[in-house]
Amino acid sequence: MNPTVSRPDHEDILVLRIEGMSCNHCRAAVERALLKVPGVKTAQVDLASGTARVTFDPHKATRDDMVRAVEDEGSRVPL
Predict the structure, then answer these.
(1) In degrees, to the nearest 5, what angle opens at C-alpha 55 toward C-alphas 50 and 59?
(2) How far is it, in rounded angstroms, from Cα 44 to Cα 55?
(3) How far, in Å, CA of 20 to CA of 25, rounded?
(4) Which of 73, 2, 4 is nearest to 34 (CA)?
(5) In angstroms, rounded to a whole number, what is the distance separating the alpha carbons of residues 37 and 54?
(6) Mean pLDDT calculated for residue range 19-48
């Protein structure tokens, strides 16, 4: 489950579960990839919980954009 919380200031928060991160380097690479997605404002990736908390503009970025960025780094986002 990947809950999205809408906020009135044109920012949504999405929590993604991420599989395949095994070290801090992986965590940092996923975080950098998410931050490169146009419309993503913040990305906090937690290696221990295997999650990423992303604040983004829903008019500029979609969940699919973020999933693609994570998967391009070699990690997976389960359905």
Answers:
(1) 130
(2) 9
(3) 12
(4) 73
(5) 11
(6) 97
Q: What is the DSSP string of 14-73?
A: EEEE-B---SHHHHHHHHHHHHHSTTEEEEEEETTTTEEEEEE-TTT--HHHHHHHHHHT
Q: What is the pTM of this model?
A: 0.88
CB-based contact 62:38 (threshold 8 Å): no
Count Cα neighbours of 70 within 13 Å in the Cβ-side half-sphere. Answer: 27
Q: How far is CA 4 from CA 21, 22, 34, 61, in A?
A: 22, 25, 16, 13
Greater model confidence, 2 or 11: 11
Kindly indicate the confidence band of residue 1, based on its pLDDT and cuts at 50, 70 and 90. very low
pLDDT of residue 49: 97
